[in-house]
Amino acid sequence: MDIKTEIINDVPILKVVGRVVSSNSLEFIKQLKALAEHEAPKVVLDLQETSFLDSASVGIICATHMDRYKNGKNLEIMIDSSKNSFIPSLFETTGLNNVLNITRIS
Predict the structure, then answer these.
(1) Cα 46 from Cα 8, distance rounded (Å)
(2) How far apart are CA 86 and CA 66, in angstroms?
(3) Average pLDDT value over all residues in the chain
(4) How many Cβ atoms from other residues are within 10 Å of residue 56's Cβ?
(5) Residue-number span of the structural domain to which 76 is assigned
(6) Considering Cα of 1, then 24, then 3, then 19, what sign does the dihedral take?
(7) Which of 45, 53, 104, 96 is nearest to 80 (CA)?
(8) In CATH, what number is assigned to the domain containing residue 19?
(9) 63: burial class by Cβ within 10 Å (0-12, 13-18, 19+)?
(10) How far apart are CA 75 and CA 61, in angstroms?
């Protein structure tokens, strides 16, 4: 897994590349929590090049969404089904696509 943080047009973006599994999920959780604490009204979790999320990671994404939502802020999740079908299928199968703010790039 590779994680990169950048700010584009005052929007913090956390880009995750590769597989998020138990051996590296603590780093993902740490980085996502830091993103969530940002004061910007909108932050982006870019999962376009993420090939797998373990259950702990999905849980922290949901918790981050709820925390930001309660504070009137937004967590946008970007996915690209043309690069990988697992992540879109994960959100659809669990029904999280109806709860989370997900933007499909393709």
Answers:
(1) 13
(2) 23
(3) 95
(4) 15
(5) 2-104
(6) positive
(7) 104
(8) 3.30.750.24
(9) middle
(10) 9
Number of domains in the chain: 1
In 3D space, the residue among 28, 91, 95 whose CA is nearest the CA of residue 64 turns out to be 28
52 Cβ neighbours under 8 A, 6+ residues apart: 19, 20, 21, 86
Does 104 score more than 80 pLDDT?
Answer: yes
Flag whether the pTM goes above 0.90. Answer: yes
Output the six-digit token pair for 21: 């599994």
Q: How confident is the model at residue 87 (pLDDT cuts 50, 70, 90)?
A: very high
